[in-house]
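Trying the structure run again after the queue cleared.
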Amino acid sequence: MPSRYGRPPKEKKETPYVVFKPAAVRSMQRGINLMVNVLRPTLGPHHRIVALDKVVRGGVPEMLDSGGIIARRILELPDRDADMGAMFVRHMVWRQHDREGDGTVTLALLFQSLFNQGVTYLTAGGNAMAFRAHLTRGAEAIQAELTKMARPVEGPEMLAHVAESVCFDPALARVLGEIFDIIGEYGRLELREGRGFEPEREYVEGIYWDGGLLSRAMMAPMPRTVAMPGSRPTDKTVLRAETENPAILLTNFDIQNPEDLIPVLRTAVAAGHKALVIVARNLSEAAVSLLMANRSPERLWIFAVKSPGPGSDDEADGLEDMARLTGGTPLLSAAGDSLARVTAAHFGRARLAWANHEYFGIIGGGGDPRVLRRHIADLRDAFRRVQDSETRKKLRARIGKLMGGTATLWIGGFTPADIEFKKELAERAGDAVRGAMLEGVVPGGGIALLACQPVIERLLAATDDPDGRAALRALHRALEEPLRALIENAGYDPSTVLAQIRHAPAGYGFDAVRGAVVDMIEAGIFDAAAVLRQAVVTAATGAGLALTTDVLVHKRKPVQELNP
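Done. Tokens:
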């Protein structure tokens, strides 16, 4: 807008707000301690609850006990300098939650102890970069010790103990132990809202994908007056189409012209197939009408399902998995394929295929078992290499589908909020059980970390470097912090209980439920080794990064963005 003198006003440049050391370190420390102290009460079986106010004034506060969810809900502190430290913790904790499902508060406590001890040492004149390097080396030694300490998980009872260490709900833990003993570490677990108060489970035979029938007309039951070779009638009550020994055509086509389907139908009939399942991205109404007009229990029974996945990458992955499972060859638009070139070799086979309005499933795929095993092995290798949590989840789901392990867990409660709380608990516990099945378990309750102190003591005895000794002493003390918090949350004096543990045999720790020092393995108190290893390395690298941060920079007037 022009000014009163006819010239546009000058744009005001935002001057960055810069905070230098030592004020930067003190500010970050305030935010770090505030965030970790919010999470600290939620550790252990006798944990406390953190109440978070709703955005809408007057709403019922959220009652949470998950470190990851609590940290995620805290968006900003009023003190912008301290906010940088708090958001640093928030990022680490959420990544741990997203990747492992557990160990968030353990990570936060380890990080807080290392950072605070490091600030004290560096204020006295220590070398920050050397301190950071020694923290990393010490964390690697702890990781190696936890790996040696890990033992495999065997049987539903042991799996239930791992689940209970996260959810602290014996009934839910027993069901999860049974489920994962059946479906395996990669198995597919769906959590749904139940009607009763106790958790219930249901196992699904075979493999299924998201993407159901492309038309409800295909749910109509087959005529019962005619013999139905190769097919079984659709069940009216569950609205599910089902057929035995079908040929399966895999495509990602959007089929609009019904004439494109004629070569497919002719090829299927000529090959002697009595049932056909077409996988496609979409079918026009005219194409559906053509299929319905040619559907006959005497000649060829047909239904069509949507290709899997919400995106093109998910669709490609799903079609690839289906091809390995059924022995079919997908027809892809990106490769220039068309339905006019269909041959009998393109069809996959299965013992049984079914579909409803949500899912498409296969039982007894007819592909080469050796090809399928190699494909699963390749997916497992990729799962071990990939670090991105979202990609890992997708790979795990693909492996679980191909291995045929699928279960549905129905979770009930008194209120919708109670059900959501239990579902979130079950998801976290399930992630911890998967990690334990993949990489083993260690004694729980903070005892595995405490058992790593002798490794640090040996490293201390082997170094004369003052920065190295300071970093290793910080690690040695930090390894006690999760156990101290757990004991304190249970209402006991940490120093007294720690003294009892140090005088007990190896492998003994504090059972907060019984209030006694016990053999942790015999008591069935475990932690997933992968969770602790990730927490240790993240805490050490995070503390090293935070301790070498000397300057904070923000804009005076941060841009406010509204996400639609």
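The radius of gyration is 29 Å. Worth checking whether this holds up in the mutant runs.
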